[in-house]
Write a structure and sequence with these properties.
By secondary structure, this protein is an alpha/beta fold. The chain has 3 domains: 116 residues, Immunoglobulin-like; 325 residues, Glycosidases (TIM Barrel, Alpha-Beta Barrel); 117 residues, Immunoglobulin-like. The protein is built from 16 helices and 30 strands. The strands form 7 sheets. The chain has an 8-stranded parallel beta barrel with strand order 9-10-13-17-18-19-20-21. A 6-stranded antiparallel sheet has the order 22-23-24-30-26-27, covered by helices on one side. A 4-stranded antiparallel sheet has the order 1-2-5-4, with no helix packed on it. The radius of gyration is 27 Å and the shape is elongated. The chain starts with a helix and ends with a helix. 48% of the residues are buried.
Length: 638
Amino acid sequence: MNKVLEQQMIEAEHKFLTGENFHSHHFLGVHRLDDGSGYVFRVWAPHAEHVWLVGDFNFWSDSLPMTRRESGIWEIYTDEPQENQMYKYKVKQANGREILKIDPYATHYEVRPGNAARIHTLPDRKWKDGLWRGRQKRMNYFNRPMNIYEVHAHSWRRHPDGTPYSIGDLTRELIPYLVEMNYTHVEFMPLTEHPLDMSWGYQVVGYFAVCSAYGTPEEFQEFVETCHLNNIAVIMDWVPGHFCINDDALAYYDGTPTFEYYEHDRAHNYRWGAMNFDLGKPQVQSFLISSALYWIDTFHIDGIRVDAVSNMIYRDYDEGPWTPNHEGGNRNFEGYHFLQKLNTVVKAHHPNVVMIAEESTADTKVTGLVEMDTLGFDYKWNMGWMNDILRFYEMDPLYRGDHFNLMTFSFMYMMSENFILPLSHDEVVHGKKSLVNKMWGDQYKQFAQLRNLVTYLVTHPGKQLLFMGGEWGQYLEWKFYEGLEWGNLNDHFNRTMQHFTATMNQFYRDEKALWELEDTADTIEIIDADNTGASVLSFIRKSRTKSDFVIVVLNLSSTEHQDFAIGVPYPGVYEEVINTEKQEFGGTWAEGNHDLETIEAPFKQFNYQIRPVVPALGALIIKPKKINVRQSAKKTNK
């Protein structure tokens, strides 16, 4: 090896050991030599007594011993392996036990139930999404539409024989569906290598590999590129807090706590039967941040949703015993500072990649600048909104007036973080019922309320996420081992619900008032959030242009309200643009409200009113048609 390469290797090794090698996958793992004469394999196992490279190429024998560097990294240069052959590391652990371990940096694995890594050199790709990526760099995603369709890759659709779709199949069918339904983003539950579908991908063994059960790395590159060519951004769930406990994977890799905490209770995640990463260990920081950048660099993904942030920043989040920190509190300082470092590094390399936290508490500032002592994320899932709203829609309308704060409480804190409103997979499993079956009443009323809920999701400040199947009101709970119930779409209610969702998605994309000022309090003005008697909520969403706004009216009662007073800011004529009870959406109204002329009568802070008919369990969206902005300003200033 020449001196230049040796010096580069020493620098890469030093940065890995100090937690500053954010592309450590270029150093560790398997790499074909530039001259094509063979491969170099490297693995970090600092307390191992010995390590061998074993695989198809040497009949899984001990014929290829690896050499230990001072850093605890083992390496071997060999010309025996060939592309696509399978391999593992045979590790003689600190206690003398010998075990076959996977390569933590492997980029491809054999298909289950096998669990060996494959030698896979990903060819350089000539990407065609340069226009998309350039456009994203010029945009501020905080005041752009973000409407996310959440997908589990193996259960969106299946072939007639029951076999799941591959990523290639999803490229051919899911992407046209996203376009047809007018989504702006697709978010995948974890695509990283995992041994058991039952974990939904959240028990990871390979942090640099597309799950082989889903397809190849090249197929996923093709999927992302095709999404970009169709103006769809791609987000993936990523799990840096905990990992699969399987003995052949990362757990106690060299026989001692390697990737996990030294303290037994901190290392073991009792709730999920997993292991917790030691997020304060420099080598683990290099490993995980390299994983994040690998997915961004290699696959051009547009966003990362970090799973289970609460488990990373609180010592007492798990169900097992816990030990206070050195200050006597429950803060996991290692996890807190790791997340700040992660977001800082990702933003330094890729400012336009969206970083999202799935975090369920309100005790830590999650979004915003790290310099302001936040975790540095762009968005946080609003779990409080989701829990409150679903409780409310499950309730008999007779009692909703007494619990109307469940609908309105989010207005009190909606600017405290940058939020995504999630109606996610977690809410339609384990006996929680599907989204439509959470709604109160008979089938007709359930779909009327699901349309009402989707209207609120789309018009409430914040970005939005809906799990697959919710867009048409799938009757059954989600099952990870089956495809969605696409046969539901033969039913009138499901078919019209799907049409309604597509209509609302397009309306959201078209209306600047629903996203242009979203990161400021000016985005919304409440008309009436106190009408608990009628159970009607009304508010205005605003754009930068004074005359460009939408009025949202949600009737949460089972009573139709005639001649219903709604305050408006300017005199003139208003028009109904969305009515959830129209026949085309599954309702009974052949026609909606005709043009609505204002009357001069005070309503709270407003000088004018309109008086539409508001359908039972329905929602209206109303826009100005011909209004006089100056006249209102003159009256208000008197």
